[in-house]
Amino acid sequence: MRTRISGLSLGNQVLGEQRVAHAELEKVRVIGVLHAQDCRYKELKVLGEAVCESCQIDVVSVNGTMRGEDCHVKKMVLLGEGEFYRSELEYIRVLGRLCGSDISAAHVCVGSRFMFSMHGRNRKQLLAKGLQGELLENLMPLQLSDQRFETIVNEEALVCDGEVECRSFFTFHDTRIHELNTDFCYIEPFHRIGIKELHASLVIIDPGFDPAWMKDITLTYPLKKRSRNQKHAHVRIDCIEADEVVVDYAHIALIRGDRITIGPHASIDQIEYRVSCEIHEQAVVKNVVKV
Q1: In angstroms, rounded to a whole number, what is the distance separating the alpha carbons of residues 226 and 9?
Q2: Domain coordinates in residue numbering, the chain
Q3: Burial of 284 by CB count in 10 Å (0-12 exposed, 13-18 middle, 19+ buried)?
Q4: Would you place residue 129 in the very low, low, confident or very high pLDDT band (cuts 50, 70, 90)?
Q5: pTM assigned to the model
Q6: How far does CA 31 lie from the centroid of its chain?
Q7: Which of 107, 119, 189, 289 is the most exposed place for a label (fewest CB within 10 A)?
């Protein structure tokens, strides 16, 4: 049974240390320390420290530190430190540091176009190990480890020394991944791309991005407009295995697939195809084998 407490009953802000349990809170600003158990917040702003257990939060902004266990959050902006366990976050924008375990999120946006991270723009962001989500929208330097997302849209430096597994992968910036497993992969060849192994149903490496490929994806920030005069950087991939491959402005050591299309600016060491292989006359291909 919750007791309804308005923000004014708490003085609208917590200056010292306060404990609240089984309450419904309208609007609270935490400058001191708040301990809350089994509470519901409409709006929470943490400048100091908040410790929440089994709480439901509509909107929270964290400039200080926050720890949550068994919490459900609809929308969070994290500029400071957030530590969560067994919690569900519907939308979170990370400009600080997120840690903990057993966290699920529908939409994770790392960084912002309009402000720098509290930890510095050149610092790789930290996301909680084991974090699982539907959409990762990356706008800051980021290193992935064992996180899992259905869709990844990358617009900044992305690094993973292990395996990245997702349903759809889009990258519009520098990317270094040891192994990428996905159904659909789009790589914009304006940047430094290094991938050891790429396994997919469809791989497209070409400057001609089609917005229809992302028609079902809602981003926090619309994609930046690309200039047609941007300099193309050669993508380097050791091995691509896919049903269909479209490649230009890339150096690939080995391509295996059913249907392969090679553009005029591509350099391929070996192609192994099963159904069809179209190669532009200006492309450099050392060896082609039908298997």
Answers
A1: 52
A2: 157-219+231-291
A3: middle
A4: confident
A5: 0.90
A6: 30
A7: 289
